[in-house]
Write a sequence for this structure.
């Protein structure tokens, strides 16, 4: 698995420090609002669990699974809900937790769904942002790191379901997905 990585961008220590910084900021900004924190599965599962441990305010969590990449490094353009929320978002302050914003298609779809369900507010926290690849014009409210235009894996992010368990984020060697 390690031999498929071209370059480590952020190691475990750097990721943890950034997650803690985001958690402290979110705790201040969501004080007294009991936010519903939504993990966008599968990619955000590690970020979500590390993030909520650094948050010091009352909050609730829920999960939604969506997918658009499948076995490719390019979005299919069609976002599918694979698992929906258990909780109603009506009148709630909602915090979407994403691992990465790339084309922006997943997020724009999710924001639209949650606004149509009458959430009181929809805020987005993403650990990674790849602005060079955007096809939809949107930005997260909270961003951890801005990444170069490369396909990355680890810390929850996959290629064809592999590499999610790497503790760091790294660039995948192109020969892995070009073969
Ligand atoms: O901005 P976009 O181009 O939409 O890309 C970002 C989305 O793509 C990935 O999910 P994916 O569809 O691969 O599902 P996964 O989380 O199960 O890996 C990632 O976890 C984000 O949710
Ligand atoms: O660079 C990426 N890596 C893994 N999954 C992704 N989904 C969108 N962009 C990426
Ligand atoms: Mg994926």
């Amino acid at each position: 698995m390690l031999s498929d990585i071209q370059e480590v961008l952020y190691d475990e220590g750097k990721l943890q420090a950034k997650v803690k910084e985001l958690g402290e900021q979110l705790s201040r900004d969501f004080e007294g609002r009991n936010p519903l924190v939504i993990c966008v599965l599968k990619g955000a599962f590690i970020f979500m669990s590390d993030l909520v441990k650094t948050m010091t305010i009352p909050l609730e969590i829920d999960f939604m699974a969506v997918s658009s990449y499948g076995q490719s490094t390019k979005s299919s353009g069609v976002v599918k809900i694979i698992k929906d929320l258990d909780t109603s978002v009506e009148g709630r302050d909602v915090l979407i937790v994403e691992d990465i914003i790339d084309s922006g298609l997943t997020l724009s779809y999710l924001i639209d769904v949650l606004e149509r369900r009458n959430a009181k507010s929809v805020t987005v926290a993403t650990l990674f942002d790849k602005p060079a690849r955007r096809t939809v014009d949107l930005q997260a409210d909270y961003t951890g790191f801005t990444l170069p235009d490369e396909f990355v894996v680890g810390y929850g992010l996959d290629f064809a379901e592999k590499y999610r368990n790497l503790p760091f984020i790294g660039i995948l060697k192109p020969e892995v997905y070009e073969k």
